[in-house]
Write a structure and sequence with these properties.
254 residues, alpha/beta, six-stranded mixed β-sheet, 10 strands
Length: 254
């Protein structure tokens, strides 16, 4: 993992007159699974949204494959969006569309493929996330929470992205479904060579899935490293976060 896919330097984000991120630096290496963690209000979701260009930057830079995001024109932005996939915390599936139509949606939006090919790709992505073809014609409301997450992941993978963003991927899942989803993420990353950036509070996910973890506090990356390294940190905020009863229980498993 030597090639940076994203480089963030001196990133400052201000919302409602309040500084959320303050001269933050972060590099995401190609092929790694990087998690962003921190207490409530530390700027995790803000960081994710700023990379996705969903909120304005006050100052600083974000590079994607060695080119500044803000220097891209509209056509380049369209290509950029095709090179990443996003799994939102609540799935964000279209309730009025079937599972198959949800997965097909980005293919219709960003490609000139014919309808038959789009359907074939969507069914392939559905199988890729461990769902059978009989789920294709159901509506999201007819699926369990875990299945909805898998459909949303299939949609995020529809355009074969180089970079995958996951926002609280196991939130709302029972322990069995969460463990199964962790396995799926890890298997897909290894099989497809994905680079993954996730925001999560799930300590089991952090220990089992990630290569590196960036801990945010006061709008900056307080420390970054493997879970083994962060678990031994002497910084009080990190110690409190990872060494509570739940943190110790998760650590013992791995």
């Amino acid at each position: 993992m030597t090639t940076p896919i994203i480089e963030i330097q001196d990133l400052t984000i201000q919302l409602g007159g309040k500084t959320i991120l303050n001269q933050l630096d972060l590099t995401i290496q190609q092929g790694e699974i990087l998690a962003i963690v921190g207490g409530s209000g530390s700027g995790k979701s803000t960081l994710l949204r700023s990379i996705l260009s969903l909120i304005p930057i006050a100052s600083g830079t974000i590079k994607f494959f060695d080119k500044f995001i803000h220097e891209r024109d509209e056509k380049e932005f369209a290509k950029l969006y095709q090179s990443w996939g996003v799994l939102f915390q609540q799935g964000a599936l279209f309730s009025s569309l079937t599972v198959l139509q949800n997965i097909e949606f980005p293919l219709h939006e960003y490609t000139d493929l014919d309808a038959k090919t789009i359907t074939e790709i969507a069914l392939l992505k559905l199988r890729l996330v461990g769902l059978n073809a009989d789920a294709a014609y159901k509506f999201p409301s007819e699926l369990s929470g875990g299945m909805q997450k898998r459909v949303a992941l299939a949609r995020a993978l529809a355009l074969d992205p180089a970079l995958l963003f996951l926002d609280e991927p196991t939130a709302g899942l029972d322990p069995v479904a969460a463990n199964s989803f962790d396995e799926l993420i890890l298997n897909l990353q290894q099989a497809l060579g994905l680079t993954i950036m996730m925001v999560t509070h799930d300590l089991d996910t952090l220990w089992y899935v990630t290569n590196r973890v960036a801990f945010l506090a006061k709008g900056k990356v307080l420390e970054i490293g493997s879970m083994q390294e962060l678990a031994q940190s002497q910084q009080s905020a990190i110690k409190d976060y990872f060494n509570g009863p739940r943190g110790r229980a998760a650590k013992r498993q791995y």
